[in-house]
């Protein structure tokens, strides 16, 4: 018999790691309809579309397809929920915070189920869904729940400024982090008292729709959050050009972001915030901790199968350590094994769909044609649909397509540089400006290079370190506005100046 406080093998119980979470068994997807006014609706045109498991190619279920008429219905519900005198508008700010905390509690309760559903729909490994996506979603809700009663106006000798609520915000989401992006958008929007219409990506609607049920369970009034699954050219276009929507927040490609801005300008000049693509530089100086730099750079290149706007897609390495960095990178990449995303041992899953899969392999071929050296990977796994073995390219030159275009797949491009000024100029020579990273032991160099890089986020000796408290967003064609942190509150609010002349005629 084990002694008190120890296991059978004599180790203290607190030294035994907890068992890894396991995927849930899901026999049926219950929430497949359009969510409006806290109720489930069929498409007004009676249309549906399938969603597939990219790891197996098997259809998961049919989803009701929202069109313009469904978007109109959702906008009407959101505007009614946000009008003066409504339950939502009369709710005190502390109660809004409590609702956001309640929604976070429900995500905690259903964390395993949501992580399983996210993995089924996206193909990302289950443990990444559980520990990264769900953890980030819960922390984002709790962070903005804390802000709900702390958004104060300012007084000054000539007037009074206060936050003024928007009426209806629309959110359009990308498929690579569907639940996390959902929370990045709705948490600050609801914290500021807005009502919301959400269009999840057609490839990955499941967790958004399930969250609709949790929103109702949490006690949000009808119409505060409405979810309209559908396609960009129909539901998305209806949203971008809708005269009843005051603001659109979009995460996705730069090309679609341009279309949204155009539609916003041609309709009611609605406000738009965009989180778009990236061609992110990762700079490794000779004095860096090389094994750490290799590990973090590959985390940046291969995480989520490379399907990240923040992907470390241009790795610049100082020439005196270039060969060693390439050697270590090849050895590291060869250790990555693709497999069943539901297996807790799997670290690399499939691409999202055939279109993305084909585009990645075509860019790999372009790299070989243009003279880059494919060191390892870059091929389709024959016995697994939509799986690509992570690729490492060396001798990549700035003019190559691999160095200019967003691959959005597991492809690492390693480039050589001579000195600091050269690499800063090359790193900034892109239309994008989302993220960047610097690896060095010199604090002075880290600060100088970070300040010079044209990117909204710069990581030093780490990669993909995102937090609910820190602002995130891009320069140039990587987008406008900021997600997360206190800065996001301004994206979902208007400032009104109220000037009161104090004299004897003013009475209470």
Automatic annotation (TrEMBL):
The cross-references to SUPFAM superfamilies, in alphabetical order and at most eight, read:
ALDH-like (SSF53720)
Active site positions, chain numbering: 275
Q: Which GO terms describe its molecular function?
A: oxidoreductase activity, acting on the aldehyde or oxo group of donors, NAD or NADP as acceptor
The record, for PROSITE patterns, names: ALDEHYDE_DEHYDR_CYS, ALDEHYDE_DEHYDR_GLU
Q: Check the UniProt entry and state the signal peptide residues, or none.
A: none
Which residue stretches, if any, does this entry annotate as coiled coil? none
Enumerate the UniProt keywords alphabetically. Membrane, NAD, Oxidoreductase, Transmembrane, Transmembrane helix
According to its UniProt record, which protein family does this protein belong to?
Answer: Belongs to the aldehyde dehydrogenase family.
The protein here is known as Aldehyde dehydrogenase domain-containing protein
Organismal lineage: Eukaryota, Metazoa, Chordata, Craniata, Vertebrata
| Name of the gene this protein is made from | ALDH1A3
């Amino acid at each position: 018999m084990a002694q008190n406080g120890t296991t059978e093998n004599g180790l203290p119980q607190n030294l035994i790691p907890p068992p890894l979470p396991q995927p849930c068994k899901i026999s049926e997807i219950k929430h497949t309809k359009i969510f409006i006014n806290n109720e489930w609706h069929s498409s007004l045109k009676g249309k549906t579309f399938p969603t597939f498991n990219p790891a197996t190619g098997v259809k998961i279920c049919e989803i009701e397809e929202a069109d313009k008429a469904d978007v109109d219905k959702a906008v009407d519900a959101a505007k009614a929920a946000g009008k003066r005198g409504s339950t939502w508008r009369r709710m005190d700010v502390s109660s809004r915070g409590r609702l956001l905390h309640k929604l976070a509690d429900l995500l905690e309760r259903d964390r395993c189920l949501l992580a399983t559903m996210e993995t089924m729909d996206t193909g990302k490994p289950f443990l990444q869904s559980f520990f990264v996506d769900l953890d980030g979603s819960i922390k984002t809700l709790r962070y903005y729940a804390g802000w709900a009663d702390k958004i104060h106006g300012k007084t000054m000798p000539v007037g009074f400024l206060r936050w003024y609520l928007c009426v209806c915000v629309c959110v359009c989401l990308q498929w690579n982090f569907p639940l996390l992006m959902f929370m990045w958008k709705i948490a600050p929007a609801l914290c500021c008292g807005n009502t919301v219409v959400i269009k999840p990506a057609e490839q990955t609607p499941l967790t958004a729709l399930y969250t609709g049920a949790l929103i109702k369970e949490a006690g949000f009034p009808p119409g505060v959050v409405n979810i309209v699954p559908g396609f960009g050219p129909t539901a998305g276009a209806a949203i971008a050009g809708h005269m009843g929507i005051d603001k659109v927040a979009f995460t996705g490609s730069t090309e679609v972001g341009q279309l949204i801005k155009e539609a916003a300008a041609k309709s009611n000049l609605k406000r738009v915030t965009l989180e778009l693509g990236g061609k992110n530089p990762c700079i490794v100086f000779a004095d860096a901790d090389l094994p750490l730099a290799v590990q973090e750079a590959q985390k940046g290149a291969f995480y989520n199968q490379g399907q990240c706007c923040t992907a470390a897609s241009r790795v610049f390495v100082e020439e005196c350590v270039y060969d060693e960095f390439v050697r270590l990178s090849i050895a590291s990449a060869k250790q990555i094994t693709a497999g069943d995303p539901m297996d807790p041992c799997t670290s690399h899953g499939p691409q999202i769909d055939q279109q993305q899969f084909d585009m990645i392999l075509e860019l790999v071929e372009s790299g070989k044609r243009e003279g880059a050296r494919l060191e390892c990977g870059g091929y389709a796994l024959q016995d697994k649909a939509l799986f690509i073995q992570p690729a490492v390219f060396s001798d990549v030159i700035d003019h190559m397509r691999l160095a200019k275009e967003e691959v959005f797949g597991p492809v690492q491009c390693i480039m050589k540089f001579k000195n600091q000024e050269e690499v800063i100029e090359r790193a900034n020579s892109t239309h994008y400006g989302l993220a960047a990273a610097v690896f060095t032991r010199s604090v002075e160099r880290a600060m100088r290079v970070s300040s010079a890089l044209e990117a909204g986020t710069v990581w030093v000796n780490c990669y993909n370190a995102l937090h609910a408290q820190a602002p995130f967003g891009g320069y140039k064609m990587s987008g406008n506005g900021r997600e997360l942190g206190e800065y996001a509150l301004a994206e979902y609010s208007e400032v009104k100046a109220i000037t009161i002349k104090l004299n004897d005629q003013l009475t209470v």
